[in-house]
Amino acid sequence: MKPADGTIGRSRAWAGLLCAAAVLAGAGFRVERMTFTHMSSFPAALLVRWFERLTGRAGTASDADLRVPAAPVNATFDALLRLEAVWLRVGNLPIGSSLLALVRKQAA
Known about the structure:
It contains four helices and two strands. The chain has about 110 residues and is an alpha+beta fold.
């Protein structure tokens, strides 16, 4: 987070939400709800991205994101994502690796 982000009460993540909302609005949609998803896997994704940058592999094409992890790891993330899904029925998540938007096409 940049010092200015704290001053205006907005992090880079929230700036991303605002940018996505602006793009959707510009395309003629009314944003009814926007939230992050995959909060539980966000720290792992952040760590992987940091490691890729550190080792210089960030710009290298890879299918690593498409591989299914070991069964216990996959089961853990599956359980965590199911809990997130329950929470998302009543609230939003403050951070995550994906965005979810509920939009409606505005009348012409």
